[in-house]
Amino acid sequence: MSLDAATVRRVATLARIRVEDAEVEKLQQELNGILGWIEQLNEVNTDGVEPMAGGSPLPASAMPMREDAVTDGGIAEKVLANAPDREGEYFGVPKVVE
Protein backbone atom coordinates (compact mmCIF):
# COMPACT_ATOMS: atom_id res chain seq x y z
CA MET A 1 0.00 0.00 0.00
CA SER A 2 1.33 3.43 -0.80
CA LEU A 3 -0.07 6.83 -0.03
CA ASP A 4 -0.42 9.62 -2.55
CA ALA A 5 0.01 13.32 -1.76
CA ALA A 6 -3.74 13.87 -1.38
CA THR A 7 -3.97 11.10 1.22
CA VAL A 8 -1.01 12.55 3.14
CA ARG A 9 -2.75 15.94 3.22
CA ARG A 10 -5.98 14.26 4.38
CA VAL A 11 -4.17 12.40 7.18
CA ALA A 12 -2.50 15.64 8.26
CA THR A 13 -5.88 17.38 8.32
CA LEU A 14 -7.43 14.61 10.40
CA ALA A 15 -4.48 14.77 12.81
CA ARG A 16 -4.82 18.55 12.96
CA ILE A 17 -1.24 18.98 11.74
CA ARG A 18 -0.38 21.83 9.41
CA VAL A 19 1.82 20.53 6.60
CA GLU A 20 3.42 22.90 4.14
CA ASP A 21 3.41 21.95 0.46
CA ALA A 22 7.20 21.51 0.55
CA GLU A 23 6.90 18.94 3.36
CA VAL A 24 4.27 16.73 1.70
CA GLU A 25 6.70 14.71 -0.43
CA LYS A 26 9.06 13.99 2.47
CA LEU A 27 6.14 13.04 4.73
CA GLN A 28 4.73 10.83 1.97
CA GLN A 29 8.03 8.93 1.75
CA GLU A 30 8.21 8.51 5.52
CA LEU A 31 4.64 7.24 5.82
CA ASN A 32 5.13 4.86 2.89
CA GLY A 33 8.25 3.54 4.63
CA ILE A 34 6.29 2.92 7.82
CA LEU A 35 3.54 1.14 5.88
CA GLY A 36 6.22 -0.96 4.17
CA TRP A 37 7.50 -2.12 7.57
CA ILE A 38 3.95 -3.00 8.63
CA GLU A 39 3.46 -5.05 5.45
CA GLN A 40 6.75 -6.81 6.15
CA LEU A 41 5.61 -7.64 9.70
CA ASN A 42 2.35 -9.06 8.34
CA GLU A 43 4.38 -11.58 6.34
CA VAL A 44 5.98 -13.10 9.46
CA ASN A 45 4.75 -16.64 10.16
CA THR A 46 3.24 -16.66 13.65
CA ASP A 47 1.66 -20.12 13.54
CA GLY A 48 2.01 -21.83 16.92
CA VAL A 49 3.03 -18.63 18.72
CA GLU A 50 0.89 -17.94 21.75
CA PRO A 51 -0.30 -14.35 22.03
CA MET A 52 1.08 -12.35 24.93
CA ALA A 53 -1.01 -10.32 27.32
CA GLY A 54 0.88 -7.34 28.69
CA GLY A 55 4.28 -8.92 28.18
CA SER A 56 3.89 -11.30 31.11
CA PRO A 57 4.22 -15.06 30.64
CA LEU A 58 1.64 -15.53 33.40
CA PRO A 59 -2.05 -15.66 32.53
CA ALA A 60 -4.03 -12.56 33.53
CA SER A 61 -5.89 -14.61 36.17
CA ALA A 62 -2.58 -15.37 37.93
CA MET A 63 -1.62 -11.74 38.35
CA PRO A 64 -1.93 -10.62 41.96
CA MET A 65 -4.61 -8.03 42.60
CA ARG A 66 -4.07 -5.28 45.13
CA GLU A 67 -6.71 -3.67 47.24
CA ASP A 68 -8.12 -0.53 45.66
CA ALA A 69 -7.43 1.80 48.54
CA VAL A 70 -5.78 5.18 49.00
CA THR A 71 -2.28 4.56 50.30
CA ASP A 72 -1.02 8.11 50.52
CA GLY A 73 -2.38 11.40 51.66
CA GLY A 74 -2.39 13.31 54.88
CA ILE A 75 1.29 14.16 54.42
CA ALA A 76 0.93 17.73 53.19
CA GLU A 77 3.75 18.93 55.46
CA LYS A 78 6.21 16.45 53.91
CA VAL A 79 5.10 17.24 50.38
CA LEU A 80 5.26 21.00 50.86
CA ALA A 81 8.47 21.01 52.94
CA ASN A 82 10.60 22.24 50.02
CA ALA A 83 7.92 24.23 48.18
CA PRO A 84 9.12 27.73 47.26
CA ASP A 85 5.69 29.15 48.11
CA ARG A 86 2.62 27.69 49.72
CA GLU A 87 -0.88 28.71 50.61
CA GLY A 88 -2.19 26.54 53.43
CA GLU A 89 -1.94 22.92 52.29
CA TYR A 90 -1.43 23.86 48.62
CA PHE A 91 1.40 24.95 46.39
CA GLY A 92 1.43 28.70 45.84
CA VAL A 93 1.87 29.73 42.21
CA PRO A 94 2.05 33.18 40.65
CA LYS A 95 -1.09 34.56 39.09
CA VAL A 96 -0.85 34.68 35.29
CA VAL A 97 -3.02 37.18 33.48
CA GLU A 98 -2.56 37.99 29.81
Structure write-up:
This protein is mostly helical. The protein has a domain at 5-42. It contains three helices and two strands. The chain has helices at 5-14, 21-42, 76-79; strands at 86-87, 90-91. A hairpin with a 2-residue loop joins strand 1 and strand 2 (90-91). The two termini are 48 Å apart. The mean pLDDT is 87.
Outline of the structure:
The protein has 98 residues and is mainly α.
Main sheet: strands, sense, barrel: 2 strands, antiparallel
Mean pLDDT: 87
Which value, in Å, is the CA radius of gyration?
26 Å
**Global structural class:** mainly alpha
Give keywords.
single chain; two-stranded antiparallel sheet; 2 strands; 98 residues; mainly alpha
Topology:
Blueprint: H1 5-14, H2 21-42, H3 76-79, E1 86-87, E2 90-91
Antiparallel strand pairs: 1-2
